[in-house]
Amino acid sequence: MEKIEHSYLIINDLRLHIALVGKGEYGDVILLHGFPEIWYSWRYQMLALAEAGFRAIAPDCRGYGLSGQPPELEKASWEDLTNDLLGILDTLNIPKAFLVGKDFGIKPANEFSILHPDRVLGVITLNVPFSPISRSLDSLPKGFYVPRWQEPGRAEKDFGRFEVKRVVRNIYILFCGNELQVAEEDQEIMDLVEPSTLLPPWLTEDDLAAYAALYENSGFSYPLQMPYRSVPEEV
Question: What is the dihedral sign for C-alpha 182, 185, 189, 194?
Fold first, then answer.
């Protein structure tokens, strides 16, 4: 079985980390992660794609994992992610690619396919449906994680009470429940998870350690800005 390799590309003045594997006889597949994720989320799919004859490429989104941090968080935009995707294809001399997006990764995948249809072989999206029309998030409960994390400083204070590994653990437990919980007015999102709650069976302690190490490197400042605090004006 081929081994996943790692490289860095200078894209739009940022050093972006990519993981890649496969010869690409049948084309290239770009895998775009969501939150709280990194390239590592695609490790099994990457190996399966390589075995099937594709080259799998999973970047760490700017501000995530081992990729560089944008200098001005408040100016983060979805256009940045679309431009980064174009830069990756150009730098790797990929004329056309299949795009796979999960969670917020679907937005740059969808927008790229609209802006650059000549560079796309197909688009696969997971978790979030395509939404071409702007919609308000005002209907969400105020104690839901999305509006809570949109509040400047609130999530930082909430997360700051714990080590990074505990934060990532709590988010995954929260996200994999049958129903997403809503916090009371005097309750924080991290408090919704009981410390004794077990990890879901598909997430091992080694996996958790891998995620935690990369979020310790990147921090949560950009991941909270993109996608959560960039949602109101552009969803």
Answer: negative
* Maximum C-alpha span of the chain: 55
Q: 3-state class of 12 per DSSP?
A: coil
**Domain residue spans of the chain:** 1-132, 137-235
pTM of the model: 0.93
> How many Cβ atoms sit within 10 Å of the Cβ of residue 100?
23
pLDDT tens digits, 152-175: 999 999 999 999 999 999 999 999
- Please answer whether residues 18 and 9 qualify as being in contact, where contact means their C-beta atoms are separated by less than 8 angstroms: yes
SS3 6: strand
- The Cα–Cα gap between 137 and 148 comes to 12
Cα–Cα dist 214/43, whole Å: 15
**Rounded to whole angstroms, what are the CA distances from 235 to 116, 158, 187?**
20, 25, 27
pLDDT in tens, 211-233: 999 999 999 999 999 999 986 44
Using N-to-C axis directions, what is the helix angle for 205-218 and 164-175, rounded to 10°?
120
Integer Cα distance of 169 and 166 in angstroms: 5
Domain 1-132, CATH number (from 3.30.70.1450, 1.20.1250.20, 3.40.50.1820, 3.40.50.410): 3.40.50.1820
Report yes or no: 193 and 98 within 8 Å, Cβ to Cβ.
no
Q: How far, in Å, CA of 99 to CA of 122, rounded?
A: 6
Integer Cα distance of 235 and 1 in angstroms:
40
Q: Which residue type, as a one-letter code, is found at position 22?
A: G
